[in-house]
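Our preliminary data section would be incomplete without showing what the modeling component actually yields. Below, a chain of 259 amino acids is followed by its predicted structure, encoded as tokens that our downstream tools consume directly.
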Amino acid sequence: MGDVLDKAFQYSQAALVFLTGDDLARLGTRYQSPNDPPEEKQLMPQPRPNVLFELGMAFGRYPDRTVIVSLGYTRQFSDIVGRHVVRLTNTVPTRKKLVGRLKTAGCPVNIDHKDEWMTIGDFDATAQQPDLSGSAALKIIRRRAHPEDTAQFKPKVWVEIRNDSGTCLEVRHMGWEHAPMGIQIKYGPASMQLKLEKVFCPEKEGLEHLHVPPDHTIRAWVQPTMQHDITDLEQRCQTEGRIGVLHLRVNGQDVKLTV
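Predicted structure:
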């Protein structure tokens, strides 16, 4: 591993190490004390061990050229927390912090007279629990904007979600939430429809509560504000994490589904 890193740094100015909470970990109960913080007592997202090992190798050899970026919430470790880790979100201050770290590492970053870097991408969409449990492989398979000329509420953005869990799920619609970088929502009803063959039922009005068999699809919708034209909505439907957050209760567990 050391030889690989030495060779890589011959050709690269810096290494970006992204920490994502793919594992779940906590301190063993034998070693816990009453004053321990929550992340020592509860299962918390943590990067894979090989990522932490490779991070340590890179940081030990090239500390000034190793940029550590945390996406979503991960367990903290005291050796580098705060001083070295950039906790990247959609906010401009965290993006500026990453730019600063890249410059410190010697990268020729130029943001003069540019502003796209302050809004492009949706880093908050990475803040998801590693376990499938409640969002139980509820997978977004399609997002579609439609003018709905004859509808009472128009335009509409439809979101289709498939149950990939292998078991029947009890799903309750709990509402919509605006997400950073998402669309502005005028109306988001607690309404869902279940797809049977090629038809979504009930056809005219959806239901707040559905039982969804395995491999079946449900859909929900929102009405955006008038500041979004149909072209804008169609473009957002083709880009991940650009609509909002759908709150569901799946088999009794509250789930936030980034749409």
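Helices lie at 2-11, 38-41, 49-61, 92-104, 230-237. Residues 138-258 form one domain. Preliminary results of this kind motivate Aim 1 of the renewal.
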